[in-house]
Amino acid sequence: MLNRFHNAPLSQQIATLAAILCLLVSLALVILGAISSKHLQNQQQLEFGNALAHQIARRVSVALETGDLLSITASLQRFVETSSAEKVTIFDVEGKTLGEAGHSSGQYLSQYRASVRIESDIAGEVLVTVSAASSAAAHQRFVLSRWVCRYY
Predict the structure, then answer these.
(1) What is the DSSP letter of 89?
(2) How far is the first Cα of the chain from the last one, in angstroms, to the nearest whole number?
(3) Distance CA 124, CA 43 (A)
(4) H-helix or E-strand containing 124?
(5) Who's near 87: CB < 8 A, 6+ residues apart?
(6) How many CB atoms lie within 10 A of CB 60?
(7) Residues paired with 99 in a beta bridge
(8) What is the pLDDT of residues 60-106, one digit of tens each?
């Protein structure tokens, strides 16, 4: 094969080298796009998860202030049903579980925390578990689509 390349006319050798160079540059661009996309996706996931944790922390702070554990549990359950959170757990300041809703299993799970405040005091903490499986699948589809578009 290498011998055939050396015996080919100069114009074919240059064309072959240019094609190989274009292929390498395209591959580098696909890799760069995939890295950039993953970074942006991770940043958005972090902001989204933190927003969810702060939202439920604000929701349960009033019920925690009055000591209404039944209302806390109902709020957590409603939150899991209406949001993309897989599981939500609330802890008091000593780390004791006050309420929990949902369950988390599988891969690509991320956890986000937020303090539950009553006025300016920290009364506990909320732990929200979110599955990032759909975003991981979307990223894989993005990378594959870029690869396929480049070479076919």
Answers:
(1) E
(2) 25
(3) 26
(4) strand 121-131
(5) 80, 100, 101, 102, 103, 104, 128, 129
(6) 25
(7) 90
(8) 998 888 888 888 889 999 999 988 888 999 999 999 999 999 988 77
Identity of the residue numbered 55:
Q
3-class DSSP state for residue 102?
Answer: strand
Please, are residues 119 and 113 in contact by the beta-carbon 8 Å criterion? Answer: no
Q: How far is residue 18's CA from residue 79's CA, in Å, rounded to a whole number?
A: 57
Q: Would you state the structure tokens that stand for residue 49, as one six-digit string?
A: 């998860």
Are 78 and 60 in contact by the 8 Å Cβ rule? The answer is no
CB 120 within 8 A of CB 113: no
d(CA 19, CA 5): 14
Q: Hey, how many other C-beta atoms are within 10 angstroms of the C-beta on 54?
A: 17
For residue range 42-66, what is the model confidence (pLDDT) as tens digits? 899 999 999 999 999 998 998 888 8
Q: Is 101 exposed, middle or buried (0-12, 13-18, 19+ CB in 10 A)?
A: buried
- Both structure tokens of 91: 């802890």
> 28 is written with which tokens?
């580098």
pTM: 0.69
**Cα dihedral sign, 2-4-7-12:** negative
